[in-house]
Structure formats: C-alpha cells, structure tokens
Amino acid sequence: MPDGANAILVRRRRREQPAGPRTTRVTLGSRPLAVLAAVFALAQLILVRPVLGLGWDEIVYVSQVTSHHPAAFFSAPRSRGVSLLVAPVASWSSSVPLLRVYLALLSGLALYLALRSWRGLFPTRVLVVGGALFASLWLTLFYGPQAMPNYWVAIGALISVGCFLRARAGRSARAVLWGLAAGAALMAWMRPTDAVYVAVPLLVLALARRHWHILLVLAAGLAAGAVPWVIEAYAGHGGLGERLAEASRIQGGLGWQIAVDDQLRSLGGRALCRPCTGPMPNPLVTLWWFALPVLAGLGLVVAGRARRLGRTLVPLACATTAALPYLFMIGYAAPRFLQPAYALLAIPVADALWHLVRRPGGAWRPVAATLVALCLAGHLAAQLAVLHGAVSRNTESRRDWGRTADALHRLGVRPPCLLTGHEAIPIGYYTGCSSGATSGNNENITVAGILRTADRLPVAHLAPAGGAPPRYARSWPVHRISDLDVRVAPGP
Q1: pTM, entire model
Q2: Is the bond into 2 cis (omega within 30 degrees of 0)?
Q3: What is the DSSP string of 339-367?
Q4: How many angstroms separate the CA atoms of 207 and 365, rounded?
Q5: Could you report the per-residue pLDDT of 70-95, keeping only the tens digit for each?
Q6: What is the domain partition of the chain in residue ranges?
Q7: pLDDT tens digit string along 181-230?
C-alpha cells in the first residue's frame, strides 16, 4: 500500500512538472508586448498631451453621452461605438484631460490584447516590432487618445484576423472563437462598413474551406456590433438602404475615384484633406508609404519559404480590402482611414525586416542590420516631426474655438443658446450652445425653427469675415470675432 501511494505521488508530480516552465514561457513571451503597450500609452500622454481640446468629430461623438453639452447632429455615416466607448468618463465629467488619459491607457491595453491574439502565429520578436511599427506612426499616436473610431477598427481587425488564423489551426478553440467574435463586434460597433471590408477575405476563406463554426462566429460578431446601427437606420433614416445612400452622399458619393494622391498629401499631418490641394509632403515623410507594399511582398516570400504562407497572406488580403474603398472609392482623404490596413500590414512587414537582418541560422547580418536600424531611426524621426506639427496646429485651432466661445459669452450668447453657420458644431460645443444647419450634411433645423428659437433663447449666426449672411440673419447686429462675422439675434 505505501508503494502504491508513493507511485501515485510520483505520477502526480510528473504531470505537474511541465506546467511551471510552460507558464514561465507564456509570461516571458507576454512581457515584451506589455512593455510596448505601456510605452505606447506613455508616449501619447507626453507627445500629444492631455490638454489637447476636442476636435470636430470628437465633439459629435462625446456630446451624445455627456450631460454638460447639447448633443450635436449625428449624421448617417457615424456609429455609436465611440460614444459608448467614452461614456464611462464623459457621462459624468466634462474634463478633457481626464478623457485623454482614459483613452490613452485604454488604447495601450487594447494594443497589448490585439498583439497577444497573434501569439503562436509569429515569434514574439516579430509581434513586438510589428506593434512598434504601427504604434510609432504619427497618426496612431495622434488618434490613440482621441474619441475617434478608426484606431479601434484597427484593433478589432488585428484581433479578428489573429483569432481567425488560430481558430483555423485549432488552437485554444473556445477562447479563440470568443476573441474572433469580440474583434468582429468591435469593428462593426465602431464602423460597420469598414468591418465588412476587413472581414470579406475571412468570410470567403471560411466559406471556401467549410469552416462552418468559424464562419458562424465571425458573422455573429459582425451582426452583434452592427445591430445598433441597423436599428437606428430604421428608426431615424427610413431604412438600411436609405441610410447607406445618405452616408454615401455625405461622403461625396462612393464610386470609382482615385484618392491615392490625396492620402499621400494627408501624410504630412493633415487631419482631413477635403478638398485635397497643395503640394506633396517632403519625400522623407512619405517614403515609408512606398516601402510598405515592397516589404509586405517580401514578407509573403519569406512566409512561403518557411511554409507558413496562410498566416501572412490572410492579413495582407484583409489589409487590401480594408484600404481599397479609401484609395479608389472616395473623393477625399484622412490618414486615419487607413489605420486598419496599416495595423494588419505591420506584422508581415516586421517579419520581412527580421529576415533582412538575421540569417536562417539566427546569426546577424551586420551590414543589413545597420542599414535597417538607420532607416527605422530616420522613419521614427520623420513621424515625430509630423506629429509635433499636427499637435501644434490642432491645439491652436481648438484654442481659437475656445476664444470665440468666450467672446460669444461676452456678447450675451450663453447656454441655453443656438449657433448656426460656419463651424457651428465645434464652436457651439465650446460655447455650450446647440448647433443648427438649414442645409448641407448636418441639416437639422428650418429657418422657421431658428426664428422661433430666437424668440426664446440667444441665437447667433457665424460666417467668415465678409461673407454673405443668410436672409434670416441679415438684419441682426454684426460683431467681428477674430476672422468671423457674428450676427446675434435681437434679444427675446
């Protein structure tokens, strides 16, 4: 009997022994990703700074959930995902620095989770470099702490594609399937149309290979994230087709339109390039954009030689479908539109860079490693220079809105109030007023409605200096505030 008891203990110890080293390897493999995510969050707080005021689109999203400002008009292309993302802070506090810190920390955590979903598909060193390439882009650092949807679509794309590849390989099936559903839901929650473009290759591949459980989970995740947008389409836009048509009209009409040059111009630090005129940025700023497809192609060759073509080809296919509408179907550009494509390309590109600097046996290639390091250092310097310019310009423009709001307060335009005309949405938010437009993409009120409001509340119309006012405001006293003509309706 004692021998039997000892034998049981020995067998139990043997079963338990491998768990220790494996747990250690998992922990050590995750630590570099956690460090990268922490550096990314800290860099946002230092380089972008929490004092940056809210931008136009941010104001639309944040105002939907805050009780401190009237809700701005919510147009057809927008989705409620960002509003719900900021609700834990914006619903009870009007502090912009607090919101920035919250979003910076959340974006760092999200990057860590997204890269972890790729563990086992690529070595940790590839994931760290890929994450660093994406995180060090000026547009990633700039939009990480902002209430905008594109970074979160990129995170959802990384999670979805990583979990899809792991599910196909049969690794940790239940947890991975939950991750696939969550990533798809996050994308659709933020921008349903972008989610569809990213997911097309995954849906086609799952259908072609008859991975029915993966197909069902992916479709369920997309549907779950898109449900609020679809419900709102029927509740406020006359149906799904009508909302899609209205969204297309607001975006200038979707169709064959080459916006490649517009995207290049936007890389110089322009948040929105509409209309996209002016000279191209310095070639040092755009060089990485041309190197990206070359390095992605090299990553595909490396994967083919290593007999792991699928795990590289799938993210490249998803990056391509995510980028196509913003390169060839829309008449303007914003650098943030391509964030999902950049995130998906980063991992194959990192794989290619490691192939360039190390031999198959693991030894370094000194010359190649030096050249790659110098190129990456120059690329980082260019990104930080563009980021500095973008932060400075946006900080000053948002301070201008605040100064205009202070001047309006001195003219007696105080909450509750209504602003119409030029930049009424952002200036209205800073003033504490509602905003109204009788035409255009943000049309939400009639002339009669404006006049009725003026009988009860302070109302002002904003126009560029020297601009012609609308008929209803021509008789209102005019005041010059900076480069604006402000016409204030006679008091009720």
Answers
A1: 0.93
A2: no
A3: HHHHHHHHHHHHHHHHHHHB-TTS-B-HH
A4: 42
A5: 999 999 999 999 999 999 999 999 99
A6: 29-358, 401-488
A7: 999 999 999 999 999 999 999 999 999 999 999 999 999 999 999 999 99
